Amino acid sequence: MNTVAKTPWHLWAVGFVTLLWNGFGAYDYLMSKAENREYLEGMMEPTGVTVDAAIAYMDAMPLWANIAWGLGVWGAVAGSLLLLLRSRFAVHAFLLSLVGLVFGMIHQWTNPMPGMTDPTTPIIFTFVIFAITIFLVWYARRMAAAGVLR
Length: 150
What we know:
Protein name: Sugar transporter
Shape: elongated
Keywords: Membrane, Transmembrane, Transmembrane helix
Order of helices and strands: HHHHHH
Helix content: over 70%
Radius of gyration: 17 Å
Transmembrane segments: 12-30, 67-85, 92-110, 122-140
Number of helices: 6
Low-confidence stretches: none
Oligomer: single chain
Number of domains: 1
Number of strands: 0
Strand content: under 5%
């Protein structure tokens, strides 16, 4: 007989909190792709980059970097949703997100945004995102191994 493990309370907490977190990443992606000037102005202000320079930078991103960004963002959103649905495919979604994030980081660090006077905030934020993504891969794998995800 194939039994499914009882869902621990922390799965719901992790799922909902990360859905909010990753939902903000999706919002950022959509506002950036829509070239929402008001949004971008608020996001770029701490870095010293103008909105026009940020838009030009994003417009010039190579296809592979755009694909990586999309994988990172939408893989994370899908992972959180799949975690809440108790699907073992949450592991795969978070792994795709991690791959996208790594390639996105490579692009950002080898092609810094022109005019950036203070890269501290983006660097710290990228490491926070990386740590959370690593945690989510680990957590989903742990829940799958425990039989919580099917």
